[in-house]
Amino acid sequence: MSNTNIFSLPPELLLIIFADNSLDNRDVANCQSTCKRFRQITKDLPIHYTFRVDHVAQPAWKLIRHLLVYPRIAKRITSINVTWHRRQPVKLETWTREWRWEEAEKEKIEAIGERRLSTRTIGAIFQGLNSEALLPFLLCLTPNLESLDIGDAVLSFIQPEYSIFEAVRLIEYSSTGVDRTWQGSEGSHRDSAGRYLDKVMDAVRPGYPSLWFHENIRPGDWLPGLVNLKKFYHSCVKYGDPYDSNYGWPIVFLRRIMLLPNIRKIKIKRATCMKDGLYMPISRGGPPKDFQSSLKSLEILGTFIQQEEYDVIAKLTGSLEYLALNPRFCGDHRDHLHLSGKGTLVDDTLLAARKPYMQPFLQYNQGILTDRQVVFTEDEFKWNVEERRRFLNVYLDQEFGPMDDEIDSEE
To answer: What positions does the domain F-box occupy (predicted)?
Structure first.
């Protein structure tokens, strides 16, 4: 009987086994600790890292501290998947404590980030409360990154809604470990709490609804982790009214992502061109001189943008082979019900309604993209019959007057 076992396999086969996607980073670390041979084989394997924003165990901060000592490891990170664990006022177990740096660590962070990150981002890193600020710093250290999944981002520093006193109590606990309940709702107590909260929030977060990641995307002066990026995904968590056009992350940053030199696939969801009731369009400027898009696949789903924005986006393409759209407008909320999924209109009418949205992409990707490669996906915000009826009868009637029966016939 043969005595063949895993230790007798050639290095080439062991490398295939250890690189299998079914093994996570912990599995690979266990393999490395088995013997010197396994450690030698696995030491250069790609790392697929899960970046946990504001997790109570503070893994992002611990990773950065480790990479400041062993920067070579960061070059093995080829994909980052972001998960969100924001503090919630009603759940004490989510109140992540503040982290603190050694002076030598601060000096290294400043040396690495001073020409790559905004000054406010470095300040937020030193503040030690919002670990999302560590993501752009990680991108300073990961030149071989190929995939970045922002996930369903929680745009607010505290999730979801909160009072001034809840926020101050939470932040004080994160900083000091003391759980002090703030009292009162008027007068000096509220003013004092409000001033304290404003000061902290200005330091730990960029202007809502942006992220620190957004603030540090600068075309032509890319963070090293964005230079070789091939896949990108960005959405935001669903809460509040999904039919509020202020709901979503700022789509103005999509243009910057599309200018990445090696990007192949972009998928975005729940973005908007509205902020505080004001229309914030994507830059009207065309692509930079001599720019050639490498983008092959683009999915724009559940976004609140007007029709002309699709033409602006299309100008930044040129080699698309796949396009998926799910329009949700800042204008007439009724239209997207017909454009999403199968709809209720006859095929010719539905095609005519969709044509203005796909035509710019067909024009700028002529000879590559055809209408058969364009997909209009179903509305991702599923509603039951009662929710649908309430939305149509109350909100739309108030905004646009009585509706006809055409949409109700879908039920």
So the answer is: 7-44
